[in-house]
Amino acid sequence: MKPPLTYSPKSTSSNIGGYRYFFNGQEGDNEVFGEIANFGYEFRQYDSRLGRWWSVDPKWNEYPSVSPFVFCNGNPVVLVDLEGKDVIPTSALKANQSVNTFFSKVEKNHVFRNVLKRFYSNQSNIYIHLGKLIEHGEVVGKHKVAQTQSAQNPKNPVGKYGIERIVINSAILDKEGAISGDLTFVFGVLLHEAFHARMFDIRQDDPTFNNYPGYKDFLSRPQDGWHHNQMGSYNRRDLVKGMKEFDSQMGTTHSDEWYEAVSWGGLRETTSWKRFEKNNPEKAQRYMEIIKNEMDKLGK
Fold first, then answer.
1. Which of 11, 158, 252, 259 has the fewest Cβ atoms surrounding its Cβ within 10 A?
2. Which residues pair with 53 in a beta bridge?
3. What DSSP assignment string belongs to 74-121?
4. Does residue 6 lie within any of the structural domains?
5. What is the pLDDT of residues 43-61, one digit of tens each?
6. Does 66 share its domain with 100?
7. In a domain? residue 11
8. Do 211 and 270 form a contact (C-beta atoms < 8 A)?
9. Do 211 and 120 lie in a common domain?
10. Could you tell me if residue 230 is inside a domain?
11. From CA 221, how far away is CA 225, in angstroms rounded?
């Protein structure tokens, strides 16, 4: 069994005692290019510079519409390939027609894709899953729509492969298994979680944040709410933009006040919200009522 994943793109397998397992938990080989760009999966070799396999998929005849050299069917956000043999979908999500249809819209949203572009461009993976959330041994209710689990989170079953995971809480589904609330609201939450995933991945990639000076002031602070303070100060505009685009995709509309309110969801412990609430108490109260109203629609 491979040792626990510790991702470090600067390490090489030639280092004495150096760590050899990186991308997707696969062994890096620096003898091919002089640096770790080639990864040896069980069934074939992957070139991370090209985002392509060196050889033909051994099961190419089962996927006639897909290039036999493409990685994860060109969609590493939804799919994972842990051995270079099979593409493994998030089966629980794809089995639910309502959630699967919803997510087919989500993955076409330009803002969502831009937030997760490092996963697409690196041919990395983020596992989007539908299931129960468990905290302190108890099943989490609909008050938490989704949760991001970093690769280091012991609750993340694919964390050993260096994969971040977003779990959509099945408690928000109705008795028929469909998303019961406002889909744009749920999208806003999922986009919020995508920001978490990106920040977790950046921290894993560069713990010093030297390559991400805009994040360093927030993400290097060992305090509660560091991710959310980053979002509250810098990412709410993208949350609003993403929700407006999603409405356009769905053919639905909401007011500007609604978008602003939902963009604050999950951020009400931040310095930015406390400042906003102090300066705009009546508007802050309306925003909280909008969020509560949307949460009440879920899971019915």
1. 252
2. 46
3. G-TTTEE-SSSS--EE-HHHHH-HHHHHHHHHHTT-HHHHHHTHHHHH
4. no
5. 566 666 655 666 666 666 6
6. no
7. no
8. no
9. yes
10. yes
11. 9
